[in-house]
Amino acid sequence: MSTNPTQSIRVIINGRAGRYAVEPRTHLVDFLREAIGLKGAHLGCEHGVCGACTLRLDGQIVRGCLVLAQQADGHSVETVEGLSESGAIADLQQAFLARNAMQCGFCSSGMLLTAAELLEKRPEASRDEVRLWISGNYCRCTGYHAIVDAICDVLEARRVAAAGSPS
Amino acid sequence: MNAPDHGAGGLPALTEDQRYIGERVPRNGARRLLEGRATYVDDIELPRMVHVVFWRCPVAHARIVEIDSRLASMMPGVVAVVDGHEIARICKPWVATLGHLAGMKSAPQYPLALERACWQGEAVAAVVAESRAAAEDALPYLKVRFEELAGVVDMAAAVTPGATLIHPQLGDNICFERSIDTGAVDAAFAAADVVAEASFEFARHTGVTLEPRCQIADWNPADRRLTVYHSHQAPHMMQDLYARQFDLDETAVRVVCKDVGGSFGIKVHAYPEDFATVALSILLKRPVKFVADRLESFASDIHAREHRLWGRIAANRDGEILAFEIDDLTGIGPYSMFPRTSAIEGNQVLNLVGGPYAHRHYRARLQVVFQNKPPTCQYRGVGHPIACAATEGLVDLLAGKLGMDPLELRRRNVMRDDAYPASGASGIRLEGLSHQKCLERLATLMDYEGLRAEQETLRKQGIHRGIGLAVLIELTNPSAAFYGVGGARISAQDGATLRLEPSGHVTVMVGVGEQGQGTEGIFAQIAADAVGVAIEHIRVVTGDTEATPYGGGTWASRGAGIGGEAVLQAGLALREAIVALAAVILKKDPTALVLERGAIFERATREVLMPLAELGRIAYFRPDTLPAGTTAELMVTRHYAQRDYPFVFTNGIQASYVEVDPETGFVKLLGHWAVEDCGRVLNPMLVDEQIRGAIVQGIGAALFEECLYDEAGLLQNGSMADYLVPMASEMPDIAVAHVQTPTATSRLGAKGAGEAGTAGAPAAVMNAINDALKPFGAQIHHQPATPERILRALGRIA
After folding, report:
1. Do A80 and B692 touch (CB under 8 A)?
2. B454, B467 in Cβ contact below 8 A?
3. Mean per-residue pLDDT for B11-34?
4. pLDDT tens sequence across B340-396
């Protein structure tokens, strides 16, 4: 098929290390979707605006369409599939379901990863700050209200849990 | 924020043990969407699958002189380069008109342009390769020689004498014209104490589904069968169209719609690329995948709502509205879109202007014209946002002239809640609406008086806030009057099949599919209550022409009202069949038995006689134990078509509260309220989010969204960075409340809820902006109301 040269990269994907041959031009999200078969990150715009391809690279969220697979060489990548299996975002997923914070679901993987980062980095975030934080992730279906509700629910639940835990 | 208030309405239960209908039940089967386990078309990989990309016309109008594919064909991985003539040999062209839209005309359209391309973005040639990247690599090596032709871009220019004719054989650039005149309109305006008028501009915009249009066509030459995996709203419609355009038997065509990443009407049409992709699969005898990229989406998805509308309204000095008159011009691109046509939107505008009000005089003219821009067609709300913005804009202008509060003026003029059934001045038939109840509910919900006082106080401090109202009606649950009577083979009925499994669980197969609204969720709720089983024991199957009953799919807010009624009827029939069989097994009179919560009970004693799993075991595995002549019929199908009214109208009212910065022209949305009457609310949580999502799309139209074209018909903003859609931080919280007036056309009583938000939001926001601008004597009736346009309205910039 392609005659383009490839380069070898070592990547930890959802906790599992592997060595892969990739074309230098391959985007991280295309690599994950096409070579690895992880279809949870979606392609909405392929130019870094919509957020549907949001992934975690060494714990930080990135646009999967703006990062090359080669840039993940020697790093750790997490996707919604990995975070689902580990249970790391189980409370967030449950809140999204309970609040109907998804409709078509195409934005949901990215939205969840962005929200998960907010939960970690801004545990005291207000409703307005939640709205601002997720503004890089477009949802065309919900009107955002339920997504904001769901994230606020989890912020509150985690705050309560943190306050109640022994110091 | 305002707490959501559902005013349950105290509707009587539909079943003896109703546990799910009307409740905030999380969507059945939606967890896959949250774990990255959904299946969108682009997630599907088939053996020997190849990928197609299209060479698209770079100018608005061109004669194709020559296509030289030699170099492109030599590129690595390229499987085929195909032009329109090759495809036209196996796929017939189409002309999208409807018989009941008298005089409508359009020109034959082909999957790929033949001699001439008529808009920037029209597909002209196909490059097929073993990967998407390889196909894109080869595309620049495809040499298409074309000669640019004079085009028609502006709507008004399309009908000026001497205009270039896009299709000379049609004689002019007019697709469709219609007028309504109730008579005595001039007299009503002459006798009126007050007349207000305005010109409205609506910018062309589009749906921007987050998942682009996509499909995989898989022709199996041995079976002579075609399978199409399609991100689409109407699988049976596409099955019929593929069969007819390719001369196949419809049973040789299967259309499968798995998860659909947003639709909003964008994915209810038959696009040229759909047929081209199928043709390529037939020619190449292998699966072909097409996934539009974002630029292609902006340039080739249907657009909507490019209208220029003049209107006026007449009233007496007490504020009684006497008459409306409008003149609407709309541009639809070079072809009417297949198969629903591009005349429906304008037609709806005429039907809907003045819709909530009790005036008797109305005159309207519509001109639908061709132009060299992408085709327009039905997008969420179809005509409603235009009609509502014009109507409600005129009502607010009238209120201003009368010096009357806008809410009070509406109170005096909406059709009374006890006036139904009724007909609107345009001739529309209305079964039962609740404008008065909704209006009072809204006033309380938003604290109208309090906000007016706050507005007044802040105005003195130089803070310019505005309140905008929009009363609306929305067409839902259509009969065959929409398409079928005009000759379009789009099903107005829908079916549901329910099967009791041996485990006592129930599989539900429905013609209406899921694009995120929660359709499958409400079908599970209805089926669980109708049969009498736990919702966890319901499995819903949709989106497969080979598995579900025949149906129309999702459009015109028909999924819940029509598909839901079919599920209810099938569920009740299955319950009856189960109880009849239980009576035979238990040797009891069926009337002595009750089916609830997955078991057969003795009605008198409430004793559990038999769980459904036991009944299923006997029915399927031990029929030998049943009496002679007893056959277990535990699979039931019912169909439903709404035949009492052309459409079942819903109503609602919205309010927007905004702050306008007169220095920058920026609009901040402070709050939005909606009171909606969609009949019986099946799941308040899902309905609320439908309404909110639709409102946000309407806000997008009012403030941000516009497909910008230059004078040559070239798209200026074909990326998500340049075409603005609403983001979370710009949107307000949206309070939703319900009034429930069930439709008597079905047992379920549900009307549609998916589009009303989009119908009313632009009007509410525009009226709020104009209310804020009132101290400046400025007005804006041009959507989107960008900061630039607001500053221009204020006279701050030229």
Report:
1. no
2. no
3. 94
4. 999 999 999 999 999 999 999 999 999 999 999 999 999 999 999 999 999 999 999
Q: How far is B343 from chain A (nearest CA, A)?
A: 26
pLDDT attached to residue B29: 82
* Alpha-carbon gap, residue B120 to B299, rounded angstroms: 7
Q: Identify from B2, B33, B34 which residue to disrupt to test chain A contact, counting A C-beta atoms within 10 A and taking the largest count.
A: B34
Identify the CA nearest to A121 among candidates A76, A151, A161. Answer: A151
State whether A112 and B696 contact (CB < 8 Å).
no
Range list of H helices, B660-703 = 684-703
- Contact yes or no for B369/B743 (Cβ under 8 A): no
Model confidence at A165, pLDDT cuts 50, 70, 90, reads: confident
Q: Looking at the predicted structure, is the pLDDT value of residue B543 above 50?
A: yes
Tell me the domains of chain A and their CATH numbers: 7-82 (3.10.20.30), 89-164 (1.10.150.120)
B702 vs chain A: nearest CA distance in angstroms?
15
| B591 exposure class (CB count in 10 Å sphere: 0-12, 13-18, 19+) | exposed
Q: In what order do the strands lie in the sheet with B174-181?
A: B174-181, B361-369, B321-331, B307-315, B194-202, B782-783
Residue A34 pLDDT exceeds 90 = yes
DSSP class of residue A143 equals -
Q: Does residue A129 sit at the B interface (CB-CB below 8 Å)?
A: no
Q: How far apart are CA B115 and CA B573, in angstroms?
A: 56
Which among A135, A145, A153 is the top mutation candidate for probing chain B, defined by the most B β-carbons within 10 Å of its own β-carbon?
A145
Mean of pLDDT values over B37-45: 98
Nearest by CB to A105, from B1, B38, B685: name it.
B38
Span B66-110, pLDDT tens digits: 999 999 999 999 999 999 999 999 999 999 999 999 999 999 999
- Could you tell me if B747 lies within 8 Å of chain A, comparing CB atoms? no
Neighbours of A17 (CB within 10 A): 9
pLDDT in tens, B487-505: 999 999 999 999 999 999 9
Token code pair at residue A122? 């801004």
pLDDT tens track for B423-443 = 999 999 999 999 999 999 999
Q: How far apart are CA B37 and CA B512, in angstroms?
A: 22
Q: Nearest CA to CA, how far is B720 from chain A (Å)?
A: 6
Q: Is a pLDDT exceeding 90 seen at residue A24?
A: yes
- CA A78 – CA A50 distance, rounded (Å): 19
Question: CB neighbours of B10 closer than 8 A, spacing ≥ 6?
Answer: none
Number of A to B CB contacts under 8 A, please give it. Answer: 183
pLDDT higher than 60, residue B4:
no
Q: Does any CB of chain A come closer than 8 Å to the CB of residue B731?
A: yes
* Structural contact between residues B404 and B421, judged by C-beta atoms closer than 8 angstroms: no
Alpha helix segments (H runs only) across B564-668: 564-586, 612-621
Whether A131 sits inside 8 A of B696 (CB atoms) is no
Residue of A nearest to B135 (CA): A2
Is the CB of A112 less than 8 angstroms away from the CB of B76?
A: no
